[in-house]
Amino acid sequence: MVKFFSERLSVMSQQKEHEFKNLLTATEYQQLQQAYSFTVPFVQTNLYFDTATYQLRQLGCGLRIRLFADHAEQTLKIPGNGDHDLWELTDALPLAIAHKQKIQQPSQVSEQLRHYQITVDQLQLIGYAQTKRSQANLSDGLLVLDQTSYSDQTIDYEIELEVQNTTATAATFQNLLARQQIPQRTVINKVARAQQHFQRGSK
After folding, report:
1. What pLDDT does residue 131 have?
2. Which residues on neighbouring strands pair with residue 44, listed in sequence order?
3. DSSP-assigned letters across all residues of 80-127
4. Is 71 left (phi over 0), alpha (psi -120 to 50) or beta?
């Protein structure tokens, strides 16, 4: 199990989440847009990193830089105790550093990487994704609708329910899908999908 060195990190940028996800068809994506009151969509660009030997993937972790129109951030995702639990360590990142595809140091993220005996110099870009994201606040949590474009021009669609408490369960999410007559599908995480498309696009 991945060890989490919380005593060395600021609580301000730690967040534990329960996430439930499902891939969608284009038709289901449009259907959900009409079914819920989503906010105006915004665009975010994700750059994913790992070492040449994929040490982070072996640890069950994911590392990304996320760019918005006017700011950026770096996030290290660490698996929690449950199948749908994640710890997210996030640092604000100057846009100039983000555009250089560099992880900021010193930072919470670089400190946690150091505990895994990974240096920033070992990291390399393994994937790219640009996502148009819409969000809706539900009583069960935050409903997220994504349309994502990858480096090989492929597009996919995904729905996600993010919850901050334990009252919403996998059954809550399954019932949401059932009400929209959307079948459950196995989800490969976005890091792995971006990596697959990145490798295809580089051939």
Report:
1. 96
2. 131
3. -SSTTEEEEEEEEE-HHHHHTT---SSSHHHHHHHHTT--GGG-EEEE
4. beta
HSE at residue 90, side-chain half, CA atoms within 13 A, is 14
3-class SS at 179?
Answer: helix
Single-letter amino acid, residue 94:
P
What pTM does this model have?
0.84
What DSSP string runs through 25-40?
Answer: -HHHHHHHHHHS-PPP
**24-38 pLDDT per residue, tens:** 999 999 999 999 999
For 115, residues 6+ apart whose C-beta sits below 8 A from its C-beta are 3, 5, 8
Question: 108, 87 in Cβ contact below 8 A?
Answer: no
CB 104 within 8 Å of CB 97: yes
From residue 94, give the alpha-carbon distance in Å to each of 4, 68, 70, 103: 26, 11, 10, 10
**Which residues are CB-contacts of 156 (< 8 A; sequence separation ≥ 6)?**
23, 147, 148, 150, 193
Pick the closest to residue 91 from 50, 63, 115 (CA basis).
63
- Residue for token pair 């490969």: 188
